[in-house]
Structure formats: C-alpha cells, structure tokens
Write the structure tokens for this entry.
Amino acid sequence: MSSKVSALDMPDVPMGQLPEHLHLQRTRVVCKADAPVHTEGIQYSGAYASIGVDNSVGVDSFCKSFKVKVVRLTKEEIEFDMIGIDASLANAFRRILIAEVPTMAIEKVLMVNNTSVVADEVLAHRLGLIPLNADPRLFEYLSENDAPNERNTIVYKLDVSCKKGSPRVTVKSDQLKWLPHGSELQMDSHDISSKAKSYTSFSCIQDSLPEFSKKPLGVKFDDIIIAKLGPGQAIELEAHAVKGIGKMHAKWSPVATAWYRMLPEIALLKEVTGADAEKLVKKCPVNVFDIEDIGNAGGKKAVVANPRTCTLCRECIRGVNEELVELRRVKDHFIFTIESTGALSPEELFIEAVKILEDKCDRVISELS
Amino acid sequence: MVSFCLQISVPSEHREKEFAMEHGSATDSSSSTFSLMDEDHTLANSVRYTLNQDPRVIFCGYSIPHPSENKVNIRVQTTGDPAKDVLKDGFQNLMVMCQHVRSTFGKAVDDFRANESPERMKIDTP
C-alpha cells in the first residue's frame, strides 16, 4: 500500500472527464481470484452528474460508435463481435433467438400402426425434434380454430417395416416423405352419407406453389435415427408440422444455441521478465501469453498475445501473481455466436431476431398512443 | 393523491385482454407504472436501458410480479414530462437502435463475404 498523502496535496479531479479508476469500473469487469467485481452496468444517465460527466448515450452517439465484425461464418454457425452495445440489448437478442424466432416442427402425429419397441409418445416426441428444411417465413401460424391448410401445415408420412426373418432395420429421417397433397388419412365419420374428410384441407398442391416448387420441404438432415425395427415390426404414421416458437416448446427453437461472452482483456500491471515470464507463459493452458525479447542483452518479457482465447480459468492469477496480472472483460464488447439448426442461415436468424424486437416496440408504441 | 387506472387500448374483438395499461395518478402525469401483457425481460430490460439513458428520467425499473403470469410492470418517473410520452420515446429509441444494429450487421456480413471469397478462390485454384 502507498503511504498516506494529505488530500490537500492530491491533484484536482478534472471536471468533465472520469478519473481513471471510475472509467475502469464503468467499462470493465475485473475478474479477481475469488469473484469478479464491477459486474453491474452503469446505465443511469446522471450517474456521474456530480463530477460533471454525462453518462447518457443518445441514439446518435450509439449509431456512431456501434460496430459489428464477423469473425466466422459457415452455413450452420456465425461468430461476430458486437462493439458498443449494452448487455441488456445483447441479451434481448439472445433470448429472442432462443425462444421467439419461429420455425416449423412436427406437432401432431397420427399413428396408424406402431409395433416397434419405441412407444407412440416417445416416437412422436422424437419426430418433433427433427429439424425441417422449411422457411418459416413462408408459413402462417395454425390457430386453434383454423383448419390445417397448405399455408400453415406440412404433412409427412412414415411407412416402414421389417420383414420376418430379415435383419433389423434402422429408420432414419430421410424415410419421412413429404406429402404435398396433404393428409392421406380419412377422418372417422359417424354420418355415412357425408363425404369422407381428410385431416387437412389443402386447397391446392403444396409443390405447385412457386415458393415450394424449387425447394422441397424435406428434413434438414437425412441421417437422424428415429427408431430401430426388429423382424416383423412396422411403423406407419403421418406427421403434421406447424409453425411455432421456442417459448412453447424447444423443438421450435431455431438455434442449437446462441450465446455471447464479453471480450477478455488481460493487463500486465508490472513488467514480467526473465524466469517469471517463462513461468507465466507456461501457466496459461490456452497460450494467452507470449515471450518477447527485450533489447540485445537476451532479456525476455511476457506479453499478452491472444487475449481472445482466455477462458477465465484464472490459473495465471493464482497465488502470487495477483499483483502482476489483472483479468478484465470489456463490458460493451460481445463475442456473439449463433448455431443454427438449419431452417434459416445463422445470419438471417439474427436479422429476424432484431426485427422481432422492433415489432415488440412497435406494438407497445401503437398501444400507448 | 387521486390514483386512476387508465386503459389505453380498447379491447378489440380479436383480443380478449388489453396489452398495455397505465397505472398512474390523476394529478401528476410525471410518474406512472405501465403493465405490459405477454412480455418479459427481453423487452422490459431493453427499454429500461434506453429509458435510463434519457436525461428526463429520474427513475426507471421493471418487475415481473409473478413468474407464472406473462406480465411486466415498468415504473417510470420523470423530471416533469408525462411518463407515457417518455416511455414512448424510450421504445422509439430502442426501435431506432435495432434498425441500426440490423443494417450494421447486414453490412458486416456483406463485407465478410466480399473479403472471404477471393481467399477461397486462391485455395481452390492451385
């Protein structure tokens, strides 16, 4: 600890700008050996009014400072950095991605025959979890009083059997056949005179519609095991897929998962040289630190080479090192990762999520006026 | 203080219950609690953030009275402006921010694709 200094001898706090320690508290989470500190976001616009600092972030300044940088983009996955945004918004996007972006999933299963060892309800549940290759934006929700039609329902058929005396059969998701005509099963009717009705009322064949004619509404992955059949067993069923959101059931969640982490920042508080530097580099299991030569005397010092890979294992601050290294997280820099289940590409999913938040705002504004 | 409960939306035929409600005072419009139905932390926490950024807001917070009820209460106290207008501005700001996020993200994805494709071609062609 430093020796006592009279307050009168201390330099004045500059007005209109935050002192260094407050700036650190505002913008960084500091991860100490036992627990992180300054984890809260300082949101209130007048938080620093007493020292003449305006903490408000107007929309204009947000728009100026906000940045997005894509790190990795594949068909299934996107990783990108969002810089200059508050955790509340980043979290809203994450929550919407998981629970509120709609997809299509099998909701109703009509069992005709199931002599397999998989019970009806287990089989139906397994079918529900199969990702479908259907763009949910082309469909409408099926509400309680609606009849299932070509705009809100996709019908699949599964008819598999294993002959007596033949080896066991593995039923995979590619055996689910899309029925663009709608249901082939007839509803039970007590009135003999009336025409037999099917379980769906399609007014046209689904693949005659331009949006589905090019892209058949199959399953996303062909090799998902649904059940295994022994000799003499059979499954015959029809599965009806509808639009829904992850809040109702996780099968409608469009993401395998979506998550974010704050950017790690590692500060060396003192210069770490020689054997200490070697020790520090060795301590980190993900090679955050590196050694740099200083001068031509053969001296070595530790530098922070890859802070992004830090997993916050805190191995580097265990024991004596706490005064050498400080682990921090940048509060407004999010490394966001989205893993899609296939119905929409990950970048489309994020855009849909942001649109949903906009719609929510729009709804409240129109209700309030 | 006279308190009142103002129903903002007229229940339409399609909707059984109203979506947004203001619970405030008849004499002082600068502080009110708003009840939003069918919303959760997603919207309430985001709008709390935008409202706290507004210098006209003295206090803003939200609560979910019961976890099995899909409802949030948002409390807004202002320096004098009607709380309802300030809340509306908060939602408006949130919407503008979302639009900006969307366009920035779209641009970033396009940039990434533009930068990536030449590198891929290099790998493909020996």
About this structure: The mean pLDDT of chain A is 91. Chain A touches chain B through 46 residues (CB under 8 Å). The first strand of chain A starts at residue 28 and ends at 31. Helices of chain A lie at 20-27, 59-65, 87-99, 120-128, 210-213, 274-283, 346-368.
